[in-house]
Amino acid sequence: MLRLLERDELAVGELASALQLPQSTMSRHLKALHEVAIVSKRSEGTATLYRFARETISADARAAWELLRASLGEQGSFADDDRRLIEVIASRNTDSKGFFGRVGGEWSGLRRSLFGERFDSEALLSLLPAEWAVADLGCGTGDISAEIAPFLRKVVAIDREPAMIEAARKRLRDHANVEVRKGSLEELPATAGEFDACVISLVLHHVPAPAKVLVAARKALAKHGSIIVIDMVAHARSEYRTAMGHEHLGFSQTVLAELASEAKLKLALYRPLRPAIDARGPGLFVARLMK
């Protein structure tokens, strides 16, 4: 909390969104911090805004905080908090002259109310080369295959779980250019060079040996093919191992580059994705691996 309040003046709800914690928890801690003058507060309309009390904090409290802050280091969860804070700040309303000035902070919400959530991302899929064949590895119920199928020559959805295969076939039955195959991601049911690209979305953290999946995908790629990986950034939520069967607690850029190298691939892009303010999970990244 204090890390973020050092950076920006925040309302209780904004702090709760950035830290993915209940507002009641934020309010309880903010009250205690305010009582000992570590944070200050002011009112703006109906909102109460809090900030780190640089001017009024006691010398002993400042020294204690500086010592604690230095000892925290760069924890993985901090990067997620910082990315969510950027989104929280960006979502604030603005108020200046002119239509776009007056609704500047509300424009995203206004567009969603007029046109829905998906029009921009769906429209951008038209940038995909129409002649491509793409594999959706670990397709699950076929969400990604359904999204990209209208824009491509062929989509092959692959999963090993019978229940997922059944659900994907039902989901994708109206797409004539989609084929659903059952098989292991380490030994893909595919021919060499069959695909122009492979998508691996929220799958690698479930796999004991991710490099083997990347090797299999590389063999199935055409000469200048690429692999798109969407997964969690490195995080410290160890309970995911037992609660959801995660083999890996996300992947840092360094670790993914090592996995790519092991699979004789090059990591051409690693970019954290903008987090949804109301999301409860760790941050995500998108990466592009090239032959």
Q: What percent of residues adopt helix (DSSP H or I)? A: 40-55%
Based on secondary structure, the structural category is: alpha/beta
* N-end to C-end Cα span: 43 Å
- Domain count: 2
The averaged pLDDT comes out at 88
The proportion of strand residues reads: 15-25%
Q: What is the count of β-strands?
A: 10
Biggest sheet layout = 7 strands, mixed
Strand order of the largest sheet: 6-5-4-7-8-10-9
For the CA atoms, what is the radius of gyration? 23 Å
What's the CATH class of the largest domain, please? Answer: Alpha Beta
Secondary-structure element string:
HEHHEEHHHHHEHEHEEHEHHEE
CATH fold-level label of the largest domain: Rossmann fold
CATH superfamily heading of the largest domain? Vaccinia Virus protein VP39
- Multimer state: single chain
CATH architecture of the largest domain: 3-Layer(aba) Sandwich
Describe the model.
The chain is elongated and about 70 Å long. About 4% of the residues have low confidence. It has two domains: 113 residues, Arc Repressor Mutant, subunit A, CATH 1.10.10; 169 residues, Rossmann fold (3-Layer(aba) Sandwich), CATH 3.40.50.150. It has a seven-stranded mixed β-sheet, with helices on both faces. The protein is an alpha/beta fold and 291 residues long.
